[in-house]
Amino acid sequence: MKAVIYIYLLAFLVKLFAYLKTGYFAILGDVFHSIADIFLLLILFLAKKYSSKSGDAMHPFGHSMLKNIASLMVAVAFITLIAFELIRESIGRLISPVVSEKYLEAVMYESLVLLLLMISAAITFKKVGVIEKTVFFESFNDALSTVAAIVGVALSYYDPIFDPIAAVIIALLIIINASRLIKSNVRFLLGMSPSDEFYDKVAELCKSFKEVKGVHDMLGVYTGENEIHLDIHVTVEGSMSIFEADKLSERIAEKLQKEYPNIKYVLVHFCPHMGNKRKII
User: Fold this and answer.
1) Between the CA of residue 103 and those of 89, 156, 253, what are the distances in Å?
2) Are 86 and 167 in contact (CB under 8 A)?
3) Do the bridges between strand 263-271 and strand 214-224 make them parallel or antiparallel, or are there none, so unpaired?
4) Residues with Cβ < 8 Å from 35, sequence gap 6 or more?
5) What does residue 278 show for φ and ψ, rounded to 5 degrees?
6) Is the distance from CB of 188 to CB of 51 less than 8 angstroms?
7) Does an H or E element contain 267, and which?
8) Alpha helix (H) ranges present in the chain?
9) Which of 202, 195, 192 is nearest to 260 (CA)?
10) Which of 55, 78, 161, 218 could form a disulfide with 62 if both were Cys (CB 3.0 to 4.6 A apart)?
């Protein structure tokens, strides 16, 4: 993560120098994008550090959701603070285009930035986790905006109006990718449930115990990116003692967590009757 931050700082400096040297508005848009990216990386770095804290009295399921909250905040900031402002400024340039003849220098600097971003994307490509995925997609997103800047600068040789057009395209790319980040994180924050396939596997595993007659009213919710809180009702003989039920619940929970490590907490209820497959509150 630190290596990616250093790469982005270097890319930002190259972009800023390129804009100051050439004055292309598309490159300024790329500079804004880098500023947002650096804040994103810093926020995600801190979120990753503190989200690993164990649970406490106020947050019994831990702090894993902090990563999703941080990613969501940055995505909203991308749209409201960066993209809309860039579009607003680009409209002024569309009305009154500014001519610059330093397009070869601009393309050279932006090509160097593109190389740095490809290195950043390669570092995070095979890593898993919401933080790493966010960084990878942002590296890819930033590379696309840099390509748009290069194309806009090259075409501005023929007509300066292509410079602000490229800036608008960059702003739209920011909005699209930020919207995807919002969608991927909101579902966890709203209490997303695992798939039906997950519940089928849970029921099948529970029924492998001879004492279990059926499984019903299952309720699972993600309390983190790869952490599930699971609540299940198990049908057993009504004559089973409390002691026997307690021992069975321990065996069921142990086997479930062994087979599915993302199940961090299991609560097993026993009853002598059947019910619906899933419980929806």
Assistant:
1) 20, 8, 65
2) yes
3) unpaired
4) 12, 82
5) -120, 150
6) no
7) strand 263-271
8) 2-22, 25-51, 65-77, 84-95, 103-124, 130-155, 162-189, 196-206, 242-259
9) 202
10) 55
Q: Find the domain containing 131 and state its range.
A: 2-189
φ, ψ at 156 (rounded to 5°) = -65, -15
By residue count, the chain amounts to 281
Under a CB-based contact definition with an 8 Å cutoff, are residues 117 and 11 in contact?
yes
Distance of CA 79 to the CA centre of its chain: 15
Q: Are residues 146 and 214 in the same domain?
A: no
Residue 107 contacts residue 30 (beta carbons within 8 Å): no
CA–centroid distance for 102 within its chain? 38
Q: Given the structure tokens 């059947």, which residue do they identify?
A: 274
pTM comes to: 0.64
Type of residue found at 198: F
CA–CA separation, 86 and 134 (whole Å): 22
128/58 same-domain check: yes
29-78: pLDDT as tens digits = 788 778 877 877 787 777 777 777 777 778 777 777 777 787 787 777 77
Start-to-end Cα distance in the chain:
40
Q: What are the phi and psi torsion angles at 203 (to 5°)? A: -65, -40
Q: How many domains does the chain have?
A: 2
* Rounded-to-integer distance, Cα 155 and Cα 162, Å: 6
The answer to whether 186 and 66 are in contact (CB under 8 A) is no
56 and 138 part of one domain: yes
Q: Would you call 234 helix, strand, or coil by DSSP?
A: strand
Query: Distance (Å, rounded) from C-alpha 255 to C-alpha 196?
Result: 19
Q: Which two tokens stand for residue 16?
A: 């800023």
* pLDDT at site 232: 95
- The CATH number for 261's domain is 3.30.70.1350
